[in-house]
């Protein structure tokens, strides 16, 4: 209660208003609990939700990995991660609430029992989120396990990290595997980019803003450029990056999502399927640039904010003769680049049309 009162004092606009409805009880199972994503993104995000009282009242997190460890080691590691990577002030009382529901398992034989016990202890009524924060090679085994052990009571969600396959065939195979155990409504293919504030604001900027809405079309826009500029290099992820490259890492997920959000028609409502359907129409209507229309390259040595930074082939773990693309530019219409620059952001450049409108193309050109 003290927390609630503190928050109300912090935000006078909340005074007298009921606190927002809390989500239903659930257990979140994180596969890959000893990995980078869990410490850098997942736990800081969970802490932020706890800080804003947006987690269910009855909530538990089961961390799963093969590395041996205890519950208290897991809590200590995640506490340090939240302190290092979290966006909010660190509050011991908020952390303690979250930490009380944390449990760690490294022995597969004990996983089913641990999941059941945690659910009973926290009263999460069989609702479960399974988060696959693991390399793609581990997907099949884990999805099979979850499919076999998923709760018959309550709801199930499974969250799959990128990369979603490494080519069309492997992405289709992964879909088949997931659909063997889950309905489409239970599967979430996550793209962190869509959580960025500017990206989230795109729909409101386009469709609810009286200045932009009437002019966001081919009559007034000549073309759109989208640039992904990074201050970071590959940050120790050479093993992954050497196999993936920039196009798989950024283009087929983040940039296509940005293009779809920029060019789609207004959906009939904001339900997931309605938004998805409009995005699909955009993707179907743009031509796929062939190899001759894409320039692939690697970032070279340079300076970012006064600091000298290595080129791609000089990064730790990268083959000095690597041919992997670490930056790419489709040469026609739209532009995608992972390159180092002073600012880390994706910039939209929307160029006003100086030509008379062409007939017969989609309402918004991109
Ligand atoms: N890190 C990021 O910022 C980021 C961003 C976007 C997407 N992703 C994606 O998220 C996934 C995880 O990335 P990461 O950076 O966290 O990788 P990571 O640091 O290498 O961690 C991988 C995790 O998976 C576990 N693991 C590996 N093989 C496993 C198996 N066969 N069964 C069960 N657990 C297994 C590892 O634990 P044990 O070795 O202890 O089993 C470890 O906890 C990848 O698909 C990556 O592409 C990461």
Describe this structure in words.
- With 366 residues, the protein is an alpha/beta fold.
- Helix content is 38%, strand content 17%.
- It contains 10 helices and 13 strands.
- Strand 9 and strand 10 (307-309) form a beta hairpin.
- Helix 2 (36-51) packs across helix 3.
- The longest helix has 26 residues, at 238-263.
- The protein is globular, with a radius of gyration of 23 Å.
- Bound molecules: NADP nicotinamide-adenine-dinucleotide phosphate.
- NADP nicotinamide-adenine-dinucleotide phosphate is lined by residues 31-37, 40-41, 65-67, 133-136, 138, 161-163, 240.
- Residues 31-37, 40-41, 65-67, 133-136, 138, 161-163, 240 line the site of NADP nicotinamide-adenine-dinucleotide phosphate.
List keywords for this structure.
366 residues; alpha/beta; three-stranded mixed beta sheet; 13 strands; 17% strand; disordered C terminus; binds NADP nicotinamide-adenine-dinucleotide phosphate
């Amino acid at each position: 209660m003290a927390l609630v009162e503190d928050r109300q004092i912090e935000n006078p606009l909340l005074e007298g208003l009921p606190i927002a409805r809390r989500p239903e009880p659930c257990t979140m199972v994180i596969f890959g609990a000893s990995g980078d994503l869990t410490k850098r993104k997942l736990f800081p995000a969970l802490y932020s939700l706890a800080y804003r009282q947006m987690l269910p009242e009855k909530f538990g997190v089961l961390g799963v990995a093969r590395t041996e460890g205890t519950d208290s080691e897991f809590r200590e590691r995640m506490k340090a991660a939240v302190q290092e990577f979290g966006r909010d002030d660190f509050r011991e009382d908020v952390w303690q609430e979250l930490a009380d529901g944390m449990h760690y398992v490294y022995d597969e034989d004990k996983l089913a029992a641990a999941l059941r016990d945690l659910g009973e202890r926290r009263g999460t009524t069989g609702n479960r989120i399974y988060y696959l924060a693991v390399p793609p090679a581990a997907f099949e085994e884990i999805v099979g396990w979850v499919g076999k052990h998923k709760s018959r009571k309550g709801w199930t969600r499974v969250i799959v990290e990128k990369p979603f396959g490494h080519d069309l065939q492997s992405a289709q195979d992964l879909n088949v595997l997931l659909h063997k155990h889950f309905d489409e409504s239970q599967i979430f293919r996550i793209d962190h980019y869509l959580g960025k504030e500017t990206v989230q604001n795109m729909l409101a900027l386009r469709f609810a803003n009286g200045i932009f809405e009437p002019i966001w079309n081919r009559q007034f826009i000549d073309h759109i450029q989208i640039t992904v500029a990074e201050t970071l290099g590959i940050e120790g992820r050479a093993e992954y990056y050497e196999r993936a490259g920039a196009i798989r890492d950024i283009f087929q997920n983040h940039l296509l999502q940005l293009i779809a959000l920029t060019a789609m028609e207004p959906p009939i409502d904001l339900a997931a399927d309605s938004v998805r359907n409009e995005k699909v129409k955009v993707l179907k209507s743009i031509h796929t640039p062939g190899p001759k229309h894409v320039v692939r390259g690697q970032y070279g040595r340079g300076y970012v904010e006064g600091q000298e930074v290595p080129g791609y082939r000089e990064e730790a773990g990268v083959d000095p003769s690597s041919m992997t693309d670490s930056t790419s530019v489709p040469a026609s219409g739209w532009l995608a680049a992972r390159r180092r620059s002073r600012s880390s952001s994706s910039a939209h450049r929307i160029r006003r049309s100086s030509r008379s409108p062409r007939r017969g193309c989609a309402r918004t050109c991109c």
